[in-house]
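Lecture 7 notes: from sequence to structure.
We start with the chain below.
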Amino acid sequence: MPTIDDEITLEKEMYQLGADRYVYRNQMRVEERMESMSHYGTVIVEAGLEPLAQAVLVKQEAIKAGRPGSGNTHMKPLMQQTPWLIAAVAMRTCVDQISTNRPLYLIATDLADKLWIEVMLARATSREMLYFNDIRGRRSRKKEDIMRMQHTTLWSTKELSTIGLWLVLAVIKVTGLMTIVKEWRGRNTIQILAATPKVLEYIKDATTTGSLLCPHAMPMIVPPRPWNKDLDGGYYSFIPDAQLCKDYLDEISAVITGREPFIQAANLQQAVPWQINAWLLPHIEHAWERGLQIGKLLPREGWEVPPYPKHLADDHPDVQQWRWDANHIHDKNKDTLPMRVAVAKMIWIANRFKDYKEIYFPTQLDFRGRFYYRPPFLNPQGNDIARSLLNFANGSPIVRPADGRWLEVHIANTFGHGKLNWDQRVAWVHENKEKILQSGDDPWGAGYEFWTAAKDPWQFLASCNAYAQYKTLGDEYICQLPVVLDCTCSGIQHYSALLRSEKMGQTVNLTTTDSVADVYSLILEKVLAVLRIDAAAGNEMAIAWLTLSLDRTLLKPIVMTIPYSASRFGHVQQIKRWTYERTTEMFGHKDNWRWKENTLKAVHYLTTIVIRESDLVVAPAKQAMEWFKAVGYAGSSNEKPLHWVTPAGLPVYHKYTGNAMHKVRLRYLTDVHVKRKTEGTEVCFYNGEESWSPQRMANALSPNVIHSLDGSHMAFVVLDAAKNGVKNIGGIHDCFATLPSDMEALRNSVRNTFAKMYTPNVFKQVTTTLLEQLTPKQRDKIPRLPKQGNLNVADVRNSNYFIT
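Predicted structure tokens for the same chain:
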């Protein structure tokens, strides 16, 4: 049995893993000449940006006035961009190579080359940039594309060499951050660009400190320390950023007693012992090692680019198709690299802890009160792979038929049938019993094509194995499998309860019905109706959209983010992504809408329809969101956080400030952020004071209120379920997991606590608290509060599909 000493040893390992990772990343940045992207590199770039920009400005004025000066005749291209962009390119290029010992003349050449690219890209049209960003390969390929752009001009060799050398020398002279070091190489003396002793000392200190501040948080092997009034607990060693609340620690600990529901729930949740699913892990490793793509498990090394058709002429249609396919594969490999790395880490962590009978995940709350598990990658809130790899350590038999029914519901849900009613889901399992048992017994045999087609294939496979054991062993089978139910679009559920909106509540299962309400499908039908009318009138965009067979996968990510103040821009991006994937699936890459004219116009056309129809369905929520937005904007002028206390007892501080961070936008290199603000035509650097952000204060208030209520509901569910004998519970936000034998009790707790939480007029409590923090003059400018409806929140207790 592991001891606290064993846990402390493990936490020392966490520190070492974090330090190794930090050092490795820095080494990779040095080798790849990307040192300016390191933590210390960004500081060095920012430190030199202002003096270098001022030096460039002086040089530009001298060139413009025709004054004599060193190299002025050959530096006229410097007039083609702003001092800030030129300084940003110069600082980033020099810092990128500060530890490489490259000769000065090579850095100067590289700098001039990158500056020319940036200046030319600044002239490019949006369509030219679209093609440029899709080019994969070396800089030479990108330069070839730049040469074909409409407004590209060449700089002479003399201009390039003069500009590059002058900028490097200016970095050395005006910033004081770098110096020239002479080094013997063979029979020659080479000038090397190097950091000054002071900067070298800073890099050393920053690297040492950074390696100690980023331990790799992992599961615990003994129960975490309970959280107390000082918000201290969890790990036994000091782990940075592992306190219970991520923000406002002093403010919260000053006003709480330690007995609040949010603290009690956090202690209960992190005390639940888990275990690695030893049966499933080898199957995931089997697929991973063979580069299979199954659900969230992507090919380990990415997708292979087919060989170039060398036997064909460059202008042959098949060669063009190869280029489209190769670019698409490069894009996909680049975009999915973080996901593939995450899978590798999940598998490593699972192997690291597979021999422990019990592991624990210390909890953490964000400033709104939403619960998270501190260890990343492999935890009960992860994706399909992460959840499938975790079982409850302490299982229980499935004795009652009703408990077995919840296992069957979970099987149907993970396959993708969560919108059927309960009986239909169970019937589907019975109809496919043979395939389910085959999958659970031998995943790589006759059931392979069946289970890999599931929506969540790895959770589905884990449930197939549990079902196979249950059917074989009966009452003797001790089930450890977490079964999961989700609330229906919880953001709209909370708004419906807040506003007592019966009509809106009906769309998200707050009322007693015999069928499953699906707000996404409801809005989809309204959108399709509009498209059909427009198509009948000859609207080509409507006709084109109808050919794509729109479904709820388009609407769900849009509608579910409406209560959280998602912007039109976000909706446009979501529709663009969905369209790209759907057209690729239907027509291939060459005929993808991404390359058609008027694509953006068509996307905005559909976005307008989706937003309009969605707003009509959730009109009360939109009215409340506008009210919260007005309060947030007004409160920002007081330069004090807006605050309220959640039903679970957590003080929430709504504060959004900026530190005057602006960015110099670069098109080839990465943007450079700088603490400055523009006043008129003068550039003024950040003076250390915070500046309040009215826009963020306004936009974030509504979602933060909803998140705080969502977090409170989770806390009350955990406490109520524990009181009713549920010992195993997990989940995230509006998603709840427990054993099949406990699911009925947990489901009742979810519904009862929601009804109990909203029996008081929470909307009145929150809005009154917020209004009291405004001045009378500010309150006069706030729009009238939305009217509440007649929804009886007690009906939630009997809602059959509040959580499905």
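Points to note: Confidence is low (pLDDT under 50) at residues 677-689. The radius of gyration is 30 Å.
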